[in-house]
Structures are given as structure tokens and as C-alpha cells.
Amino acid sequence: MIEIFYVIASLSLFSSALFLILSIVFLRMYRLYSDQIWMRLFLGYLMFSISQLIMILSILVQEPSISYSLYTLSPASALSASYLIWSSKRSFEKTSVYLMIPPIYLLMPSTLDFITTLFLILSQSGFRGFVRIGLLMFSASYLLRGLWILTPDPLQLIYILILSEFIRVSGALLMSLVYVRRIIR
Amino acid sequence: MKKRSRISIIYDILSYIEREGGEVLATRLATATGLAYDRLVKILDELNDKNIVHMIVDERSRRVKITDKGLVLLKRIRDLKDLLKDLGIDIG
Question: What per-residue string of b and e applies to A129-156 under the rule 16 or more CB within 10 Å gives b?
Fold first, then answer.
């Protein structure tokens, strides 16, 4: 059983590196042409990368309270990343509300992460293609996390946890690997 | 009509200049990109300041030339086109 968590942690590390590559691509765009859109995309993908690292730490850390905090922080930071990316094309609109969003999200439980991610995906001018599929998988994993709290059976609880993390890391790989392959040829 | 993103407008400007051999009249560029002339000039001034295009202004006309940095920017936006589209940012 423990091995499965290590597999998930390894895949998360790989996807974190891929997200980091995408963030560097956008940072290079910002250095070439300093438009806000590139900075938001850079920060968004960097946040995705950090979120994957937090997830790995939540698996590796032995102390339950710290592990649980990291476990909650991981989807919150992924959600902040989604919001930063989603808001990037609105750079021409005068708004600073997005700066307030990450700290608010940090307080949210998984079910609200699920609802908010789903809202971002389904919003009129939201995401498409593999980004959409990847985020839907994130959203599904948050829903499972929400159900996890309601499950009384400890064994079932572990299965749900594994399934939820596996769906999440698959979504992260889909969202990063496909585009890194297309951009870096 | 759907509002074009700023990056989409810049992409349209740069790709049109490139298609026309690297240099065009600002008036033709305004027609080709569907931008009001005043708005286009504002954007071109900014691109000129960032060394993406070079403006050649004389008494009778205003010509716009794409720089090497502009060509690099255009290529990189093209490379990112698929990803940007899936992020909801339509480019050209």
C-alpha cells in the first residue's frame, strides 16, 4: 500500500517539474514583452508546480497535523493557480480582486475547492482542451476528498484517498506533459 | 462581437507585418487588423518603446517595421498558440 503513495509522489514530482518548465516559458515571454498576461500565467503555472510539491510533502511528512495541513493546502494552491491563469486574459480589466483570492481559498475545505474549480472550468470563457480535462480531474479528486471525510470505514478511506490522489496526479500530468511536448520540440 | 485580448491584437499586428515582408504603412495595418487608427498608433508607440517594432515617421506617412525582437516574440506566441487557446486566450 505504501508503494502506491510513493508512485503517486514520484508522478507528482514529475508533473511539478513540467509545470515549472511551463512557468519558465511564460517568464521568458514576460522578459521579452512585459505584459501582465505573461506574469499571471507564469505565477499560475509556478503555483501549480508548488501545489504538486506540497502534495508530495503531505505524503512524506510523518507528523499527522502538518501532513493534514499540507493536504488541505495543496488543492487550495492549485485552485489559486487555476484562478490566476483564468484571470490572465482579463488583464485589460481594472481589477485587483484576484490578489485577495489565494488567502480566501486557503480557508476552504475540499468540497468548496470542487465547486469553485468546477465554476472556473464551466464559466463562459473558461478553459478548453487538455487544460479543461485536467482541471475536471482535479475537481473530481476534490469531490472524492470531500467524500473521504464522510467515510467511516478506514480501509475504504485509504482507497478513496489513493483514488483521489491518483486522479489528481493524472490530471496534472495531462495538463503539463501534453503542452511541454508541444512547446519544446 | 467578442472582445479580442491584447495579446491577440499584438499577434495580428506582428503577423501582418511579417506577411507583408517586414514593413507596412500604418494605415494599411489599421485596415488589415480592424483597429481604429488612433488606437493602433497607441499600441505601435508602446511596441516601438519595447523595441518590438520600429516606427519610421516622415511628413507624408508612418511606416512600421518589425524588429528581430518582434520576430522572436511572434515565433514564441505561435509556439504557445495551442496552449493559449486551451487556456481560453484565442490568438488569430
Answer: bbbbbbbbbbbbbbbbbbbbeeeeeeee
**Which candidate in A26, A33, A125 is best for mutational testing of the B interface (most B CBs within 10 A)?**
A33
Q: What angle do CA B18, B20, B23 make, to 5 degrees?
A: 75
Regions in chain A scoring below 50 on pLDDT: 92-100, 103, 107
Q: Which residues in chain A have Cβ-Cβ distances shorter than 8 Å to B86? A: 127-132, 179
From chain A, the residues in CB contact with B7 under 8 A are 35, 37
Q: Which domains, ranges and CATH numbers included, belong to chain B?
A: 6-83 (1.10.10.10)
Tell me, what DSSP letter sits at residue A109?
Answer: -
Q: Which amino acid is at A122?
A: L
Considering only residues B12 and A110, tell me which one the structure prediction assigns the higher pLDDT.
B12
With contact defined as beta carbons under 8 Å apart, do B16 and B28 qualify?
A: no
The secondary structure of chain B, three-state, reads: CCCCCHHHHHHHHHHHHHHCCCEEEHHHHHHHHCCCHHHHHHHHHHHHHCCCEEEEECCCCEEEEECHHHHHHHHHHHHCHHHHHHCCCCCC
Residue B42 is which amino acid? K
Of the candidates A37, A177, A162, A176, the one whose C-alpha atom is nearest the C-alpha of residue B6 is A37
